[in-house]
Amino acid sequence: MDKTEFDTLYEYYKIQYPKDLEIFRDTCSTDKYSTNPKDKLFFVDDLYNFRKSKHYLLKKKHFVYLLAIHTAFLMAIHKYFNDKYEEFKTMNKGIVFEYGLTDTFVYPWKILRILHIPFDKKLFSDCLGRVMSDMMIDSHFCGIIPRDFMDKFIDDPDLNDPKTPYGREFKEIAKEEYFQVIKSICPKNKS
After folding, report:
1. How far apart are the C-alpha atoms of 47 and 132, rounded to whole Å?
2. For the chain, first and last CA: distance in Å?
3. How many whole angstroms separate alpha carbon 5 and alpha carbon 33?
């Protein structure tokens, strides 16, 4: 993470990430017809165009990791708790990229591959932990029992794709980060 920007990932995530996400959304220009920003659609071509533009946000690996991780959460909600999808999408910060208007989505780790973001296990782990932690504390699960969701999320076969370094490492990283989040929220009672 760029130390001149913020001292911690927490500060970046709380203060700058929402602003960077809006900048990113504004650069996605494939959907030329939606006049309301909330109705805007995002397509795989937006990712390729973003990469070709050499936008300064590409240098913020933590930004792109957070984007992919939020998208992974959003896609898992769509898959396992579809009735909560719209509410979850409004409350959280994921973007689902489509292949045209086919309702076929780009998987989160492919976002990173398209943008040529190399795997950094420590940073990826830190970003995943940050998102999990904020979601647990801020009640962003929209009425879904967090453990029910996290069990499905951690074991999701699409997120555990062995063809990518993210997928090969995902389950181990996600389990460890989830354990750390639970441990910090519910510390053991020392009697």
Report:
1. 25
2. 40
3. 35
Q: What gap in Å lies between CA 178 and CA 30, rounded to an integer? A: 36
Q: Give the span between the Cα atoms of 107 and 75, in whole angstroms.
A: 8
Q: Tokens standing for 39?
A: 């109705």
Q: What is the pLDDT of residue 187?
A: 58
- Cα Rg of the chain, angstroms: 16
Cα separations in angstroms, 109 against 66, 81, 86, 141, 163: 11, 21, 22, 22, 10
User: 68: Cβ–Cβ under 8 A, 6 or more apart, which residues?
Assistant: 108, 109, 111, 112, 166
Instruction: With beta carbons less than 8 A apart as the criterion, state whether 69 and 133 touch.
Output: no
Domain ranges of the chain: 9-184
- Indicate the burial class of 12 (C-beta count within 10 angstroms; 0-12, 13-18, 19 or more): buried
Structure tokens at 141: 């699960």
User: What is the per-residue pLDDT for 9?
Assistant: 93
Which one, of 69, 61, 90, 83, lies nearest residue 156 by Cα?
A: 69
pLDDT digits (tens, 9 = 90+) for 99-149: 877 778 899 999 999 999 999 999 999 999 999 998 887 667 888 888 899
Q: How far apart are CA 170 and CA 50, in angstroms?
A: 25
